[in-house]
Structure formats: structure tokens, C-alpha cells
Automatic annotation (TrEMBL):
Residues 20-149 form the Nudix hydrolase domain. Transmembrane segments: none annotated. CDD domains: NUDIX_eIF-2B. It comes from Halosolutus amylolyticus. It comes from the Archaea. Belongs to the eIF-2B alpha/beta/delta subunits family. It holds the Pfam family NUDIX. InterPro entries: IF-2B-related, IF_2B-like_C, NagB/RpiA_transferase-like, NUDIX_hydrolase-like_dom_sf, NUDIX_hydrolase_dom. This is NUDIX domain-containing protein.
């Protein structure tokens, strides 16, 4: 049963057998920063013509039901979507219907935008989530849709705690946090009036918290700084609309830069390749290149390399190996090129990336194998110093012995072990990185003190 507002369950239906509320699931599907909204057709019982997410009655386990609804209402199977998170249920009463709803929200990432509509919807659009609260938008939404979205939307806390995704991915999430808040402030103007100065102060504070969230990720800082800088000198008079426009443009620009860097790298990939960790940009480059074989280090303790190996298995021959075997693989298998991503590129051309990158690059340099670092230029840091994050000690050892544990998440690869940087601007050598760092420093001047912060990750 998919129609969460239809008549087939009856008013006050006890769908879970525990109360008189109707429990439903709502899935928000995200693709490259945009959200899927679907317009309810005349085939449903209520909220006809209004826009919502993928939804349906929670018959049994909501975690299972939501996947069924996605497949039924969009045609997207389990290989096309991946869950990001679920959120606390939203309970509200619709007095017109005389019904209490309990909405279980979910956020999924979708691999593609093409979907197959069921009869319950007659149109769909991929839009910024802020369209839900835009008083000028054409999409009238079902009740409490924005409230449900906020339960699963990215936050400063979720960005600080995310140890599964790379820097480029998290930089987009940071821009989404700013975008969503700016969009909400714009939407609230119709009720509370405009307060440009107050809006700017609130968004500037949020931006500073985002800058602090992941201190090792220069790309996050640069992209947040660019959005705030491009809000313009008149941002204090324009307020939230200026930041909303800048973040929407920033997301598009960031996605294009990552795509272009991957496309440039793909043109250079042929023969056998060695890599490690999980970089979305590198993965796209390998998928679109022509490698004869890819050697992938497992990238313990999180095992990101295993995910990369599985993702590439249908495209080309893949060999997965232990991290300790990196030098052995370089010596015995003699790959034609090492291709890695970067969390941060320091002004001198050295590279901060997943632990093990340094070992791989030094071994390749010694063997005369070129090392290509694939990254958008937004990953160049404006600072000489580096803040290296550490992972959970229990991921390495959780036994009873009194053992000190080191679990560094990142290491630093010397610039002289890097052959080239493959970027959206083309191929750069390490000596050109300093000039880019100077450009990016100009973006930091939006802050009142003219200097970006670098504190511990915020947990708010």
C-alpha cells in the first residue's frame, strides 16, 4: 500500500496495531545536491496536486517498507539508491482529515535522476530542498514536509562525525547546510519580515562552525569561504537571499570541478593502475578511463578499498591486496601509474590523504612509476600547517591488554613524490600549487577578522 494519504486504510487506521495514528514512511532522494519531489495524482485519496517525497504506509518494519516504496514509486532498485540516514518521526494532526500522522523520514542518495513514475504521481522534479519553504515556488507541498526533511538533512554535527566519505563529498554537504538555512530564512521573510543584518550574522556564524567541522579538509573551507565571499560586499544588506544564491551556485561549481578533474584523469588512465582509499573523483576517473587492471589496497581499518574494488569489478580486472603489501605490489606487479585522491594539498605541493598514500607514493617514486593526484584545485590549502585527524582506537584494537593504539586517518606525502596534479584546470606540477593557494586566500576575507578559523570540530 503506497498511498499514505489515501482512503484505503480508513480514517484513524491502526496500521501498526499500537495506536490510532497512521504511520507512514517518507524518503527524500538526493542526487548531486538536488532533491526529488513528486506531485500526487488524482489516483490518490488526499493531498492531490501537492508535492512530497516517496511515501507509503509503514506496514511492519519502516526500514524495509521505505525501500519497497522507492522501488514501487520510482523504479529505482537497491543498486541505484543507498541510505544516508533515518530521522526521528514527525507526528502531527491534520484537523481537516481528522487524522494523526506519524512520518518516519529517510534520506537516500540516488545514482541517477531518471525514474519511472507510478500512477500515484503525475510529475516529478529535482530541485533544491529550499523549494519546500519558498513562498514563491510553484510546488505546494504536503504538510510538514520540510520538518521531515530537517530530521535527515546534513548538519554540522553529521559532517564532523562522518568517517565514511571523502573531502569533496563532505564539502558539498557543508554547502547544503548553508543553503538550507539560508533558504529557510528567505522563506520566513513572508511571515517575520526581512532582517538582512541578522540573517547575515546567523549565516556567518553557521559558516564559521562549518569551517571548524573538519580541520584537515581544505576543500570544505575553500568552498564555504567562496560561497560567503561571493555573497558579495552587500551581503549584510541583502542577507539570506545573497547566501542562498551563492551556495546554490557553489554546489553547481563544485560538482562541475570534480567532474572535470575526473574527466581529465580518465584521459590519462591506461595500462595497470594502483590506488587506495575511496575518492569519488578517482573512482569516476577509473570507471571512465581504460585501465587494464587496478590494484587496490584494502585501506584499513575502515576498508574503503574494498568498496572501490567492488565498484570496479564489473568494469575491469581488479586485484585487492592488504595495505602491508603496497610496496610488494609496486615492486612485483609494476603498475604503469599510481592514481590517488587528496583530502588536502598543501601550498608546497605535499598531499594529505588517507593513511598509506605516503607509503604507496614513496614506493612508486623509488620504482620510477608516475604518481598522479586527482583533485579539484579547491583542495589546495591556504595554510602551511596540517591538522591530521585520528580514528577510533577500537577499530585497531579493542582487547583487554594495556596497549597504546595509533590510528592515524591521514598522512602526508612529500611533494617530490608527486609527479602531477590532475585538476579541472588541467595538469599542474607541484610548483604551481603555491599560486593557487594565494588565490584561495583571497576568499577568506569575508570574515570580520579577515582570517579563517581552525579550531576543534563543532559538535552542535
Amino acid at each position: 500500500m503506497s498511498d499514505p494519504a489515501g482512503t484505503d486504510a480508513g480514517d484513524g487506521a491502526d496500521v501498526n496495531g499500537t495506536d490510532d495514528a497512521a504511520h507512514v514512511v517518507t524518503a527524500f532522494l538526493r542526487h548531486r545536491g538536488a532533491m526529488l519531489l513528486l506531485r500526487r495524482s488524482d489516483a490518490v485519496g488526499t493531498y492531490r496536486g501537492q508535492w512530497g517525497g516517496v511515501s507509503g504506509f509503514a506496514e511492519g518494519d519502516p526500514d524495509e517498507q521505505v525501500r519497497f516504496e522507492i522501488r514501487e514509486e520510482t523504479g529505482l532498485g537497491p543498486d541505484a539508491v543507498s541510505i544516508v540516514r533515518s530521522g526521528r518521526p514527525v507526528e502531527f494532526e491534520d484537523s481537516d482529515l481528522g487524522r494523526t500522522w506519524v512520518v518516519h523520514p529517510y534520506l537516500f542518495d540516488s545514482e541517477r535522476r531518471e525514474i519511472e513514475l507510478s500512477e500515484e504521481h503525475d510529475a516529478y522534479e529535482w530541485v533544491s530542498p529550499t523549494a519546500m519553504v519558498d513562498p514563491d515556488a510553484d510546488q505546494e507541498t504536503v504538510p510538514k514536509l520540510w520538518t521531515a526533511y530537517e530530521r535527515v538533512a546534513p548538519t554540522v554535527r553529521s559532517i564532523a562525525a562522518d568517517d565514511e566519505h571523502g573531502a569533496a563529498f563532505l564539502s558539498i554537504r557543508a554547502l547544503e547546510v548553508l543553503r538550507d538555512r539560508a533558504g529557510l530564512l528567505v522563506g520566513e521573510r513572508s511571515e517575520f519580515g526581512a532582517d538582512p543584518e541578522g540573517e547575515w550574522a546567523e549565516l556567518a556564524e553557521l559558516a564559521r562552525r562549518l569551517l571548524e567541522a573538519r580541520p584537515s579538509m581544505a576543500v570544505l573551507r575553500n568552498r564555504v569561504n567562496r560561497a560567503m565571499a561571493e555573497a558579495g560586499d552587500d551581503a549584510e544588506s541583502a542577507g539570506a537571499p545573497a547566501v542562498l544564491d551563492a551556495t546554490l551556485a557553489g554546489i553547481d561549481r563544485a560538482l562541475a570541478a570534480d567532474d572535470d578533474a575526473a574527466a581529465t584523469a580518465a584521459d590519462r588512465i591506461e595500462g595497470s593502475v594502483a590506488t587506495l582509499s575511496r575518492s569519488g573523483t578517482v573512482l569516476d576517473a577509473l570507471r571512465n578511463g581504460a585501465p587494464s587492471r587496478v590494484f587496490v589496497a584494502e585501506s584499513r581499518p575502515a576498508g574503503e578499498g574494498v568498496d572501490v574494488a567492488e565498484a570496479l569489478a564489473d568494469d575491469c580486472p581488479v586485484t585487492l591486496h592488504t595495505d602491508a603489501a603496497v610496496a610488494h605490489v609496486i615492486d612485483r606487479e609494476e603498475p604503469d601509474r599510481v592514481v590517488v585522491g587528496a583530502d588536502t594539498i598543501l601550498p608546497d605541493g605535499s598531499v594529505v590523504n588517507k593513511t598509506g598514500t605516503r607509503t604507496l607514493a614513496i614506493a612508486a617514486d623509488r620504482a620510477g612509476i608516475p604518481v598522479s593526484v586527482v583533485a579539484a584545485t579547491d583542495k589546495v590549502s591556504t595554510r602551511e600547517e596540517v591538522n591530521l585527524e585520528s580514528g577510533d582506537r577500537q577499530a585497531v584494537y579493542d582487547g583487554p591488554a594495556a596497549i597504546d593504539v595509533l590510528n592515524p586517518t591521514f598522512d602526508v606525502t612529500p611533494a617530490d613524490c608527486v609527479t602531477e596534479f590532475v585538476t579541472e584546470r588541467g595538469i599542474l606540477d607541484p610548483g604551481e600549487i603555491g599560486t593557487i593557494a594565494e588565490e584561495l586566500r583571497e576568499l577568506e576575507t569575508w570574515q570580520s577578522d579577515g582570517e579563517a578559523t581552525d579550531a576543534n570540530p563543532s559538535t552542535r
